[in-house]
User: Fold these one by one.
Assistant:
Number 1:
Amino acid sequence: MPIIQELFGKSPIGHLMEHALKVHECVEQVRPLLNALIAEDYELIHTLQDKVSRIEYEADLLKHDIRDHLPRRFFLPVKREELDGFLQCQEKMADYAEDFSVILMIRKTHLHPALHADFLAFLEQVFQVSGTLLTAAVEFRNLAEVSFSGAEARMVLDLIKNLGQEEWKADRLARELSIKMYKLEDEIGPISIMFYEKLLLKLSAIANEAENAGDFLRAMIDQ
């Protein structure tokens, strides 16, 4: 291999976006899982959990492939630690989606009807955060062709800025949902409350990691 090719290697940005798309595919499975919980279709939950586990594994394979094929020396279009930080945040998003599926699988939990709409609204806000990150990540790939500058860079930075606002909305909905859950504690019982909280925390964590991933994207653009 010529020394120049060895030094600069192949840009990992395209593969980084493949991984981001796979992670988003994993996160998207949360919607049918929640709908199955509302319908109390526990057999479907088991089927969907297997699907989430498979997609999360595929995302892991992509992550390892990216790390294995990073140039061994230092000439990357972005800083190695920032690229790795973005990968780690994405990995956690997929992990939390899988955790959500496992929580649903291990107990046939009845979701109180008074909470159905609130859980669905909260989930949609989590998807808003995740979707905004995905859009920014896909557009980030195009920035590599313009040296991470110009109008394209400003557009991605605006998307990343919006991530914070969208994640704040998710946090607010999570607090409101938690308050409503505990008002129903006498009807629901402490064990179900515990499971509801676990579900809430996993969904919140997806949104939090999406915002963190956006911070690494911003750092790669601003370097």
Number 2:
Amino acid sequence: MTALQVAVYTGGRVLGEGDGEVELSGFAPACTAIAGDLTFAENADYLAQAERSAASAILVSDASITSGKVLILVRCTRTAMARILPYFSPENLFVPGIHPGAVVDDTAVIASDSYVGPHCVVGRGAFIGARSVLMGGNHMGDGARLGEDVRLFPNVVVGARCEIGDRVVIHAGTVIGSDGYGYVLDQGRHRKIPQMGNVVIGEDVEIGSNASIDRAAFGSTRIGPGTKVDNLVHVAHNVEIGNHCLVMGQSGFAGSTRVGNYCVVAAQSGIAGHLSLGNQSVVGAKSGVMRDVPDGGRVLGIPALPEIRTKRQWLALQRLPDVLIRLRALEAEVARLTAAVSQE
């Protein structure tokens, strides 16, 4: 692409007298950029590195910047980068068809322009939409459904009757529709409660590797459109996560929790069951949420409390050793004064 084409595609413009016809063949950070690469500079340090690099053009968001290199002015450098990267690093293409090593039930419906890779199993009555890809070693249970442009990385499992929306990406080793953790104590033994529901994943969701999304006991476990789930996340049965949420790695949601829209759950957090996280709420890293969080609420800590309150507690704990030293000194002074009074 030329610098001018990049500018048009990202909604920007080439600054000053920059050569809009310079050809760009790759994208790289300034520290590794070579001639022909496009790079970005979102602050002064990045700009200095970009100027010293061999990059041919730089994405910037400040119109006052001057440089000997071609500058492409955009509203947000990271957004522009996310838009343009697929052109310089496109996804692997798969020739439509069914690999001879796949096992596909006669009743399954597979779009003619989809790809089913080696060692895949597609169950009875399963459906695979247009342009979807099963890279290999995937298992689709009976009645499972994939929408259009879905991409399953190797060894992803989609359980029976689970539904995956359009343009969903699920990374290697993730299981959609594993049994929910449901037991009842019956005459001294834990009796399993059959998990009869499914999982429904909305459009434009991305789920990282080795995550586990449990099917509902009854009804559906749901993940809303646009939500992004990191690696090693566990979503228990009957949980409902709203639209455009961000869930970071190693977090867990206990059963029947409700998460609103545009929520953020930071890494290694645990959410107790049957709770509600309001719209645009934020759970800080390594938090244990034990009670409902209101719309826009920000909580942190174990147990999770309002963010400001938790930070005050942490600051107080940091001061505690000094406070103890002062307390011992005061006790010693009190003891000295007491002894002096008693001698009088």
